[in-house]
Inverse folding.
């Protein structure tokens, strides 16, 4: 049998994606309303941010535009989890109803096949919002623009994305063991709302917790330091790509383990 | 006896809620985490403000306000929009309409079980912890009574808003989009995430004319005000009562009109 | 020739949670949970050759689905060995999946929002089906069923029958060695059932595909299966030709009579006269299940003719359904 390499999977993904977008267009009203909902979420987040910080020159040594940069960075980093891994939200329902079994009969990677089914196009609105915020604060801070910075930016945005994806995978996969995993997924999704604050505002104990036990600080703070404060980048920032890859791999293993252990109760 | 059949629904709700022990545990952890983030965030904000009182609220005022707002949120949030939306999409609504109870009433009392559990599992512990930690910053007097009255009205207003938004699902398939818009608007404009006192003047005036502030801002400001002027108290409760009546009437009428449309069209 | 499916002494156990009842029970559940072990499949062995159509039968909860999940690599057996075309399905799930097709219950595996032809194209890529094979398969489908109206219809707009048909076509598309069909005709009307049976039978002949069929519909069994396997409570009760099975009960014939006068009352008095056979009556017929080892049908008829006026009579072989009911109830003698 022919080996199924990266090229194979990319081609399949492309085709499924194209089909999915085509079929989404047949639910136009839903698409428009969901997109408006997404824009509402972002605007409201932005207003909250503005209300909180407008009257202060800086917080804990972080200027207004630096905070804004973190905010934009976290929005962009959260796009992949929103767009590509949204089917994790349905996992619980699929497992509960027994429908999950239907994903197990294909000769391709189960995790890939499951996630490929849904591409959440409205996440792109968030991407646009995040990029706008990021570029605006970028110019206000005057970070400069060189190919190296751009490269760093891309690498560390991917890093941050992987961490969030990994957390969501792990949270979603808990439904293979426990009944009401919705709360866990919901909790982890709330993590992303905390990612936009600099970790230095916390006391040392919580700094430790948010770095090593619940790696919220890796969603925006550590990766963004590489671009934002290039003079004093902590070791953890440089290590974060490795940590992210490792963490993603672990979450994937956990997800697959759960899926294989899942014994399709009923039917 | 009429009350008995309502209480049967309450009891079933309690049993259901308890079966998800993990759900309750995760909610508690989630709230704790949120409060920790809120604590450090506002500490940093107050530190950079350089004064003890910002916008008429001290640090501990703000903290108590936000902690109890979260507790109230967990207590009042019933995901009714989802419930109604799913019932409509699956066609289960037809069965619910056949029950010897008005759907609006039926749904409310089905949730009353989770009100009871959530009150004891999340609100009461949070309240006790907050009251203990802040050493009497929460005045324990007549304001508690007014607070309870105010919360009951808040629940009714919140439910009516949910029901109105849920009714919209009769017209569109997009539950997600509809629900997220509602959630974002209610949380921001009710003062659940940031106390209204921090809003810029003009914005706050506008928000005070909307029903949302009656859900979180009204009960919490009553609770935190140890010695309220009778005029102000009457005013707050009066406005709440007004919104209670208005929203209930609107939600009932909207449901009635929409349902007629559906039954005529055989939706 | 070695068997395409080889199952040896397979057992599967599950741990299930005991939920307590009532309010007090759910409070107790908060603090402790107890589990019990359920043996869903108990020491099953069988061997199936390429091209066979095997009816896999048993009442609900007998362990049919569990066995199929093990054969498709979704579940790992607790003990025993399964080989599908020489592969262990559980350890080589994706490799195994290339060799099998599955239509599982009423859960469509097609992309809900896509027209059927787009689903086929995606499957072509996923299973790496060559252009030539794909085209000839579609050609074959066209010759067997009228698929043109289905090809451009999104799956979600199809009727249950159309969806089942599409799912079966999709399962055969990559020319698998084995196809598992779980209740393929459930909920369908008579003509759609017939259509689907003809299709399965034709695909089996054309492609020499092994078909494992679970069903509660004896019409499916009679129309398709040469061999049946029966399990109940996880244990294998029977594995042999369908004719052989009928041979067990071959000495049984149903004698149907129409008699002047009150049928119910006559049936009761006949039962008294023939205590060794079971007698039943409906509006049209009185049925006597005669065991020919005990008495000849002609003798029974003679005996009855002397005391009743028989207007009409029929003699029937025992039906598959009755045979299987007898096996569930009494086991194989």
């Amino acid at each position: 049998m022919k080996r199924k390499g990266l090229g194979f999977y990319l081609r399949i993904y492309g085709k499924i994606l194209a089909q999915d977008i085509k079929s989404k267009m047949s639910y136009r009203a839903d698409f428009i309303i969901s997109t408006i909902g997404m824009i509402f979420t972002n605007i409201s987040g932005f207003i909250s941010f503005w209300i909180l910080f407008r009257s202060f020159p800086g917080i804990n040594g972080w200027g207004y535009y630096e905070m804004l940069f973190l905010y934009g960075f976290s929005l962009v980093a959260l796009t992949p989890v929103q767009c590509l891994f949204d089917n994790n939200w349905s996992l619980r329902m699929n497992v509960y109803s027994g429908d999950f079994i239907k994903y197990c009969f294909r000769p391709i990677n189960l995790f890939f096949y499951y996630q490929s089914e849904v591409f959440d196009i409205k996440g792109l609105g968030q991407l646009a919002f995040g990029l706008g915020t990021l570029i605006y604060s970028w110019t206000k801070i005057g970070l400069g623009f060189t190919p190296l910075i751009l490269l760093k930016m891309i690498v560390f945005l991917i890093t941050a994305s992987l961490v969030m994806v990994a957390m969501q995978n792990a949270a979603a996969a808990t439904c293979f063991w426990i009944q009401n995993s919705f709360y866990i997924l919901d909790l982890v999704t709330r993590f992303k709302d905390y990612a936009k604050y600099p970790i230095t505002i916390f006391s040392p104990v919580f700094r430790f917790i948010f770095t090593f036990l619940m790696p919220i600080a890796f969603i925006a703070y550590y990766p963004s330091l590489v671009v934002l404060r290039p003079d004093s980048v902590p070791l953890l920032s440089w290590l974060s790509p490795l940590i992210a890859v490792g963490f993603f791999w672990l979450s994937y293993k956990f997800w697959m383990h759960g899926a294989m252990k899942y014994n399709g109760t009923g039917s | 006896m009429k009350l008995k059949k309502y209480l049967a629904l309450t009891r079933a709700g309690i049993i259901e809620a308890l079966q998800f022990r993990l759900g309750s545990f995760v909610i508690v952890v989630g709230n704790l985490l949120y409060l920790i983030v809120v604590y450090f965030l506002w500490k940093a904000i107050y530190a950079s403000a350089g004064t003890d009182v910002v916008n008429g609220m001290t640090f501990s005022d703000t903290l108590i306000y936000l902690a109890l707002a979260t507790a109230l949120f967990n207590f009042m949030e019933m995901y009714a929009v989802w419930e109604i939306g799913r019932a409509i999409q699956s066609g289960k609504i037809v069965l619910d309409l056949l029950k010897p109870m008005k759907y609006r009433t039926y749904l409310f009392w089905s949730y009353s079980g989770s009100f009871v559990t959530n009150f004891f599992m999340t609100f009461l512990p949070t309240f006790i912890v907050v009251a203990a930690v802040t050493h009497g910053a929460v005045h324990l007097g007549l304001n508690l009574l007014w607070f309870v009255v105010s919360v009951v009205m808040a629940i009714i207003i919140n439910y009516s808003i949910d029901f109105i938004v849920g009714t919209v699902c009769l017209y569109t398939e997009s539950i997600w989009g509809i629900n997220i818009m509602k959630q974002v608007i209610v949380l921001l404009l009710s003062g659940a995430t940031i106390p209204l006192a921090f809003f810029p003047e003009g914005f706050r005036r506008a928000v005070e004319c909307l029903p949302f502030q009656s859900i979180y801002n009204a009960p919490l400001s009553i609770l935190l005000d140890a010695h309220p002027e009778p005029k102000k108290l009457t005013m707050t409760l009066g406005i709440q009562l007004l919104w209670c009546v208005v929203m209930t009437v609107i939600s009932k009428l909207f449901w009635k009109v929409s349902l007629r449309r559906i039954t005529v069209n055989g939706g | 020739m070695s068997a395409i499916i080889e199952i040896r002494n397979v057992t599967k156990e599950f741990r299930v949670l005991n939920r307590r009842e009532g309010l007090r029970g759910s409070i107790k559940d908060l603090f402790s949970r107890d589990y019990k072990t359920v043996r869903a499949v108990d020491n099953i062995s069988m061997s199936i050759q390429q091209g066979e159509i095997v009816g896999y039968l048993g009442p609900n909860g007998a362990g049919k689905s569990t066995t199929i999940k093990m054969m498709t690599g979704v579940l790992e057996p607790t003990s025993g060995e399964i080989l599908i075309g020489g592969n262990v399905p559980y350890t080589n799930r994706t490799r195994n999946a290339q060799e099998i097709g599955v239509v599982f219950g009423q859960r469509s595996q097609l992309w809900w929002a896509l027209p059927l032809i787009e689903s086929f194209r995606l499957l072509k890529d996923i299973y790496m089906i060559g252009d030539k094979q794909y085209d000839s398969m579609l050609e074959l489908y066209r010759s067997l069923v009228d698929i043109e109206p289905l090809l451009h219809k999104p799956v979600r707009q199809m009727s249950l029958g159309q969806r089942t048909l599409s799912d079966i076509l999709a399962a055969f598309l990559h020319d698998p060695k084995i196809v598992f069909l779980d209740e393929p005709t459930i909920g369908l009307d008579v003509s759609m059932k017939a259509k689907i049976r003809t299709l399965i039978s034709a695909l089996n002949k054309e492609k020499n595909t092994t078909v494992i069929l679970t069903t509660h519909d004896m019409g499916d069994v009679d129309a398709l299966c040469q061999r049946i396997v029966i399990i109940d409570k996880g244990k294998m009760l029977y594995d042999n030709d369908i004719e052989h099975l009928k041979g067990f009960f071959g000495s049984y014939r149903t004698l149907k009579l129409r008699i002047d006068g009150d049928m119910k009352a006559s049936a009761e008095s006949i039962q008294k006269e023939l205590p060794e056979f079971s007698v039943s009556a409906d509006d049209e017929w009185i049925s006597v299940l005669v065991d020919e080892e005990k008495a000849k049908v002609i003798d029974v008829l003679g005996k009855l003719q002397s005391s009743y006026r028989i207007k009409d009579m029929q003699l029937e072989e025992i039906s598959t359904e009755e045979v299987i009911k007898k096996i569930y109830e009494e086991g194989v003698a």
Observations:
- The longest helix of chain A spans residues 147-173.
- The mean pLDDT of chain A is 86.
- The first strand of chain A starts at residue 58 and ends at 59.
- The two ends of chain A are 33 Å apart (CA to CA).
